[in-house]
Specification:
- The chain has one domain.
- It is built from five helices and no strands.
- The protein has helices at residues 2-23, 25-32, 41-60, 72-95, 100-122.
- Helix 1 (2-23) crosses helix 2 (25-32), helix 1 (2-23) runs antiparallel to helix 3 and helix 4 packs antiparallel against helix 5.
- The radius of gyration is 16 Å and the shape is globular.
C-alpha cells in the first residue's frame, strides 16, 4: 500500500533528522545557518522533539490506510509539516547562497509534501476523493 511506504519513509527521515539535531545541534545549526550562535542549540533540540513526535505518529500509522477521508489528521499534519518546511527552506535558498545540504532538505520536504498532498486529495488508492468539496 502506498500510504504505508510514505509513512515509513517519513518516519525514517524525521527520526534521523531529529536524532542529528538532538545530539549535535551545536555542530549542525552553525554549519547550516551562518552566524548561528552555539548558545542557541536548544532551539535545534526543540525542533528535534517535534520531529520525533511526528516520526512516532507516522511509524504508528504505517499499517493504517491513509488518504482521502482515512487518517485525515495524520495526513494533514504531514502535509502542513512538509509543505511549510519546503517553502521556508526554498525562501532561504532563493534569498541567500545555501549549502547543498539545504537543497537536499528542500527536495526531500517537497517530495514528501507532494506525496501526502496526493494522499489527501486522491485517497489511498489513487481515486479522486469527492468528499473534499
Amino acid at each position: 500500500m502506498v500510504s504505508s511506504i510514505v509513512s515509513q519513509i517519513s518516519a525514517l527521515v524525521l527520526f534521523v533528522a531529529g536524532l542529528v539535531l538532538l545530539f549535535a545541534p551545536d555542530v549542525v545549526l552553525p554549519a547550516v545557518v551562518s552566524g548561528f550562535p552555539v548558545s542557541g542549540a536548544w532551539l535545534g533540540q526543540l525542533l528535534a522533539a517535534a520531529w520525533f513526535g511526528v516520526a512516532a505518529l507516522n511509524w504508528l500509522q504505517r499499517r493504517v490506510v491513509l488518504g482521502g477521508i482515512y487518517g485525515r489528521p495524520t495526513v494533514l499534519a504531514n502535509v502542513a509539516l512538509y509543505f511549510i518546511s519546503a517553502l521556508s527552506l526554498l525562501r532561504v535558498l532563493l534569498g541567500h547562497g545555501a549549502t547543498p545540504l539545504l537543497w537536499l532538505a528542500v527536495a526531500v520536504a517537497g517530495l514528501l509534501a507532494a506525496a501526502y498532498g496526493a494522499l489527501l486529495l486522491y485517497g489511498p488508492f489513487g481515486i479522486p476523493d469527492r468528499s473534499t468539496g
